[in-house]
């Protein structure tokens, strides 16, 4: 069995996802009680995509989420560093790129929107990945992060924590890799709560950061906008545009 640890070495994380790729989508549906479909729909709506826009679906896995986004009429590309995941999704007919979230193989301002679902938690440097996502997004473009989070109601939080302890056993039946899902529960426990993640997103250069809780806060959608360049001060001309921070 292959699993990663909380050091999140990219090679180990990619190898772990390669190992569970064949039954990954089925496992997601089982352990989420079918809510994974609803989360994809909510992510799609939060991005507010328009026909003809260019969208990056990062950590797309087998591209199930990319297909959902493409229903908008936008041009969507699936990117993931697990070749096994991409191979499992080849039949879905969407563009696919092998990519590291910390070193995306795209030019600056290539996309109108970027999203990552249940993948940011697996990157070794969260803020660096968010900055890289901002780099490839045009000014005024949108980002949505869908990720596990912190239940807001204490009684539900207790039951959720109990479920997380059982999750590796349930997923192990589906994927035959219980250890990979032990990593999943550990990474969820270490992941920042809603407000903390919003602060990290803001520190990475995104603005208008807000979130919406799903399933009692066990999952959260964080939405943000890449700021437009600040207008040059009077008399500066074009030279004043370079290196100026965007207005908050």
Automatic annotation (TrEMBL):
Reaction(s) catalysed (UniProt annotation): a 2-demethylmenaquinol + S-adenosyl-L-methionine = a menaquinol + S-adenosyl-L-homocysteine + H(+)
Q: In which pathway does it act?
A: Quinol/quinone metabolism; menaquinone biosynthesis; menaquinol from 1,4-dihydroxy-2-naphthoate: step 2/2
Origin: domain of life = Bacteria
Using the UniProt annotation, give all residue ranges assigned to the region (Disordered).
228-248
Single GO BP term? methylation
Q: Name one GO molecular function term.
A: methyltransferase activity
Matching Gene3D superfamilies: Vaccinia Virus protein VP39
Q: Which UniProt keywords apply?
A: Menaquinone biosynthesis, Methyltransferase, S-adenosyl-L-methionine, Transferase
One Pfam family name from the record? Ubie_methyltran
- Enzyme Commission number(s) of this protein: 2.1.1.163
Asked whether the keyword Ribosomal protein is assigned, the reply is: no
Residue positions annotated to bind S-adenosyl-L-methionine are: 62, 80, 100-101, 117
HAMAP family named in the record:
MenG_UbiE_methyltr (MF_01813)
Q: Which family does it belong to?
A: Belongs to the class I-like SAM-binding methyltransferase superfamily. MenG/UbiE family.
Please give the function described in this protein's UniProt entry: Methyltransferase required for the conversion of demethylmenaquinol (DMKH2) to menaquinol (MKH2).
Name used for this protein in its record? Demethylmenaquinone methyltransferase
Name the species this protein comes from: Streptoalloteichus tenebrarius (strain ATCC 17920 / DSM 40477 / JCM 4838 / CBS 697.72 / NBRC 16177 / NCIMB 11028 / NRRL B-12390 / A12253. 1 / ISP 5477) (Streptomyces tenebrarius)
> What gene, per UniProt, encodes this protein?
menG
């Amino acid at each position: 069995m292959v699993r990663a640890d909380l050091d999140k070495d990219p090679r180990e994380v990619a190898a772990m996802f390669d190992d569970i790729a064949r039954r990954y989508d089925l496992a997601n549906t089982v352990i989420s009680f079918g809510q994974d479909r609803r989360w994809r729909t909510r992510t799609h709506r939060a991005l507010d995509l328009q026909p003809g826009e260019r969208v990056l679906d990062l950590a797309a896995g087998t591209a199930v989420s990319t297909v959902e986004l493409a229903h908008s009429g936008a041009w969507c590309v699936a990117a993931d560093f697990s070749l096994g995941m991409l191979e499992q999704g080849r039949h879905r007919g969407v563009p696919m790129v092998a990519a590291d979230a910390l070193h995306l193989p795209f030019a600056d301002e290539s996309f109108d929107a970027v999203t990552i679902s249940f993948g940011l938690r697996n990157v070794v440097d969260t803020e660096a990945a968010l900055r890289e996502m901002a780099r490839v997004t045009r000014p005024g473009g949108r980002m949505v992060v869908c990720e596990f989070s912190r239940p807001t109601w204490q009684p539900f939080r207790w039951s959720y924590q109990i479920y997380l302890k059982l999750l590796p056993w349930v997923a192990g039946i589906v994927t035959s890799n219980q250890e990979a899902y032990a990593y999943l529960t550990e990474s969820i426990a270490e992941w920042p709560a809603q407000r903390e993640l919003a602060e990290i997103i803001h520190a990475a250069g995104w603005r208008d950061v807000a979130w919406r809780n799903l399933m009692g806060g066990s999952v959260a959608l964080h939405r943000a906008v890449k700021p437009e360049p600040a207008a040059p001060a009077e008399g500066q001309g074009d030279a004043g545009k370079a290196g100026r921070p965007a207005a908050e």
